[in-house]
Model the fold of this input.
Amino acid sequence: MTTDQKKSAASAKRTPKLSGPDQVEAFLNKLEHPLKPEIEAVRNIILRANSQLREHIKWNAPSFHDQAEDRITFHLRGKDFFLLVFHCGAKAKERADKGPLFEDTTGLLQWVAADRATVRLTSMEDVITKKDKLVEVINKWLEVNGSQSSG
Done:
């Protein structure tokens, strides 16, 4: 077999890299979590909340990014809850103000650092109750982090 034939055979064996949404679909198809329906509902809320957001897998969970910066990532290690982690991308930006990025008028965010917050979700009722406030927080987070267009 010539070198070119070997290269051709090797590339034929490779599976194409999945798109971000396909990565998330494959992940969710295999996911075993007591709150899987709630996780899927929140995923849909996030995707509908802002047209700038794209999804992929980061930290072994669905994550949402805009302008190539991750902004919201699921944390799925709990059994009776899951978290949404709101963050500012891979590298924290230096800011003069050391307080939270903005005043959270919804009361949903638990600030774990000045540029990182979480929202805890525990049931479908909790997801439904928090839906509108969650959309508000998502758009405010993206606005503060540089994305201005909402869906």
User: Anything to note?
Assistant: Residues 124-144 form the longest helix (21 residues). The chain is about 40% helix and 20% strand. The mean pLDDT is 84. The domain at 19-144 is CATH 3.90.1150.200 (Aspartate Aminotransferase, domain 1).
